[in-house]
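Open question from group meeting: does this chain pack into something compact, or does most of it stay loose? Before anyone orders reagents, we agreed to write out a predicted structure and look at it together. Recording both the input and the output here so the notebook holds the full record.
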Amino acid sequence: MAGSIAFGTDGWRAIIADEYTFANVRRCAHGVAELLRRKGLADRGVVIGYDTRFESEDFAAAAAEAIAGAGVKVYLCARSEPTPVISFTIRAFQAGGGVVITASHNPPVYNGFKVRSDYGGAADPETIAELEKIIAATPSEQVTTIPRDEAIKRGLIEEVRPADAYLTHLGELVDFENIRRARLTVVIDPMYGAGMGWFPRMLGGQILKLIEINGERNPWFGGVNPEPISRNLQKLLSTVRDVRADVGLATDGDADRLGVCDENGQFINQLRVYSLLALYLLEVRGWRGPIVKTLSTSSMLDRLGQLYGVPVYETPVGFKYVAPKMLETNALIGGEESGGYAFRGHIPERDGILAGLFLLDMMVRLGKSPSQLVEYLFSKVGPHFYDRLDLHFPAGERGEITARLDRAEPDSIASVGVAQVLRADGYKYVLDDGSWLLIRFSGTEPIMRIYAEAESPERVQALLAAGRSLAGV
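Structure tokens returned:
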């Protein structure tokens, strides 16, 4: 039996040259081709794209050769592209699905394999489970490949450059010209990832001043994980302060997540950014529709739902849950704590580029700085504070930690009563005062995450300490 490959919250990720090998990438690709054949989608072809990680272009070529070897047409991106661009291309080409070679925000030694459905979003859990079974039953020697050049000659691989169509679509959602005319200074940090060059391409050349840092390929990502959270964005924060910029925007390794800092060089956490984007669509744009959020995302969204009369749906963590729920409910917006947000009229897929454009448009239309936008949000929903701990642990201890949490039935946490316990994805404790604590394991790394949201920073830290005590880590 071939080695086990498990897909986490968004794809399979592993250390390059350990489990992440060309042989295993080909097995995954063969599995995608077989899955599409079973679903009757193989004749529509597959879009394959990749990010700027080490060897991503060669892993993408290997995947294309395996899918072509299964007799399925491949649309292979000719250069690295953001995940949302690849997902949009699936829809634009009416392909049967897609593959993205990326490990997103993982450390540089990782690469990964994301699978996208024909609707351009993350494949649902049932589809992923079926794919895992196909891959597990397929040893490497059963995978047939066709060399790239030969497959191109035979019409089984076609190189594509999808940027223009994606940019045209974004221009239908956002008034580029209005943002370009704004007297703003914006610092952009693509974190050496696939988002480099995109904001200058869209918005450069007029009154708006754009400064891009970390805008070249560096598979080591400057020594930090390409995840747009505060501890990884110190250069962005200091640059915003040094040049007295109006805002700083960062995208992760494959540009499907957004990080934001205000005009003072202070990081704005992801829960606030998601709530700002929802407020922007509801109030500035006047749109209406459901909100989809994961259980690790802000209760501010529930309050916005009440204020604007729209339903709010909560899912487990991961866009493999968010995307199907967005499609089911025709949601206005969907998102998660990681900084990934998706929007109606686009694709049910996280898009850090469009999210950044929407935030800039909100600043321009309301004439407010980022810190003023947060105060405006708080004037509607009250102050909310949030933090997260990422705790590494030996993989062999996961069962012991899980058993400890299963046994824990606290009546109160940090001196506040427990109103509800949710165990659909980890251990979420909703407290009597509306604050909450969540403990869950990463789907892609040996990391336990502890999340908390409350009305003050002090309460957040107390909840995080209590969560750590409950888990015994």
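Observations to bring back to the group:
The chain has a mean pLDDT of 95.
The first strand starts at residue 12 and ends at 15.
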